[in-house]
Amino acid sequence: MDTLPLFLHLDDQPCLVVGGGAVAARKVEALARAGARITVVAPRTVPAIERFTADAGLRIETRAFVEEDVRGVLLAIAATGDREVNRRVYEACRARGVLVNTVDDPSLCTATFPAIVDRGPVTVAVSTGGAAPALARYVRERIEQLLPAGTDRLARFLAARRADINRAAPDGQARRRLWDRILDSPVPDLAESGQEHAADEALGRVVEGPAETTGIVSLVGAGPGDPDLLTIKALRTLQRADIVYYDNLVSHGVLDRCRRDAEKVYVGKRAGLARSRATRQAEINELLLAGARDGLRVVRLKGGDPFVFGRGGEEIETLRDHGVSFEVVPGITAALGCAAYAGIPLTHRDWAQSVRFVTGHVSGGEVNLDWPELARPGQTLVVYMGLAGLTQLTERLIEHGMAPETPAATISRGTLPDQAVVTADLSTLAEEVARAGLPGPTTTIVGRVVALRDRFGPVRDSS
């Protein structure tokens, strides 16, 4: 995050606009709506600015800008169209610690104007830090479509009852849960549609109903890496979590989707990781139990899908044995996501009639798999966690009858912006992957369908 989003209370606060054209007029209008005390400095001003002199108490100084104009000002806006004048405004503000916005010049800004969605008390601001204002407007339009027109009614309804609601749950955690229950109830729909009496009745039922006293553990599939591949339910669960236990296959982009004040705890178990830094499964199980017993909403966030080489079953056994409530939120497993982003169909008519998911995890120096079954033709193999044992994997498949020229691919950091794909014959794949220096995590696909990548093309590929 390059900038810190803030909302400023400008009521009766001194603000300066340097410039008198149409762009400056739009900034004056925005400041006037916020109740600011505005001074405009410009040799000439358009009528759109002058009309604010009576309504907003605006003062116009018909002259050129001087550095002293920024003294005592909270926010200054440079909108002259003259970069040299704008630079002087910027430098004067920087010297005096005044916030400054220069229109269409991010390099001369310490503050930028966002694109705004206004729903009464609810204001959504979208900013690209000045890099692409058109994109901010595009995102604002998308949000406009998502937010109900009655959001302002809901905000006012809840604001009027906030004190009573908070008195019903004085404890911080219990209060947050009560608010979650209210927002998950029929209250928002009723308030937004103007049915205030019915909304009050529904609110009373929620407030007077039994409070949650026990926690729940949610095993959530984080998908293969791209946060846009999270399911809607996964996103909602992350947004309501009190604590999130995540492993090393979870991308930073996915973690950023968690509730901001949720505690995030790394419990990765990566091959080669020092024992002091790795977390054993038994310890993870105890952490999940402890959180649920404390009444928390616990999320166990796993790369891909919890039930595909994710040890989700072991954790559920522990939770069930101790009578802890749990739910499983499926995710897109790496085989599906990485193959799709690499342009490789796992099945295709006359090319592959079945798919096998196997783990290439090395145990005791060996990759222990049913090699004769895996070497059979007419199928696609997808190997998880196979980077360390890739040489052994390819050699065993060839030893058990798979053709050395079988197409194969290893995908590194699949679905992420730095995804890389190495394709080769089975006999040379390990050598090519080593030469490329691919980092983990990787997914390896073996089968005729890999040859279709040239036809279907990579969706995202940095190789």
Number of helices, counting only DSSP H or I runs of 4 residues or more: 18
The CATH architecture assignment of the largest domain turns out to be 2-Layer Sandwich
* Global morphology: globular
Strand tally is 17
Can you tell me the CATH class of the largest domain?
Alpha Beta
Describe the structure.
With 463 residues, the chain is of the alpha/beta class. It folds into 4 domains: 100 residues, 3-Layer(aba) Sandwich (Rossmann fold); 58 residues; 117 residues, Tetrapyrrole methylase, N-terminal domain (Cobalt-precorrin-4 Transmethylase, domain 1); 122 residues, Tetrapyrrole methylase, C-terminal domain (Methyltransferase, Cobalt-precorrin-4 Transmethylase, Domain 2, 2-Layer Sandwich), CATH 3.30.950. Helix content is 36%, strand content 18%. It contains 18 helices and 17 strands. It has a 5-stranded parallel β-sheet with strand order 3-2-1-4-5, sandwiched between helices. The protein is globular and about 90 Å long.
Concise structural overview:
This protein has 18 helices and 17 strands.
Annotation keywords:
disordered C terminus, 463 residues, 17 strands, alpha/beta, Rossmann fold, 5-stranded parallel beta sheet
Give me the secondary-structure topology:
Layout (H helix, E strand, L loop, with lengths): L13 E5 L3 H12 L3 E5 L5 H4 L1 H4 L3 E3 L13 E4 L4 H14 L2 E4 L12 E5 L2 E5 L6 H14 L4 H18 L3 H12 L3 H6 L3 H13 L7 E6 L10 H8 L3 E4 L5 H4 L7 E4 L14 H13 L3 E6 L9 H10 L4 E4 L4 H9 L11 E6 L11 H4 L4 E6 L5 H10 L7 E6 L7 E6 L3 H8 L5 E5 L6 H4 L7
Parallel strand pairs: 1-2, 1-4, 2-3, 4-5, 8-11, 8-12, 9-10, 9-11, 13-14
Antiparallel strand pairs: 6-7, 14-17, 15-16, 15-17
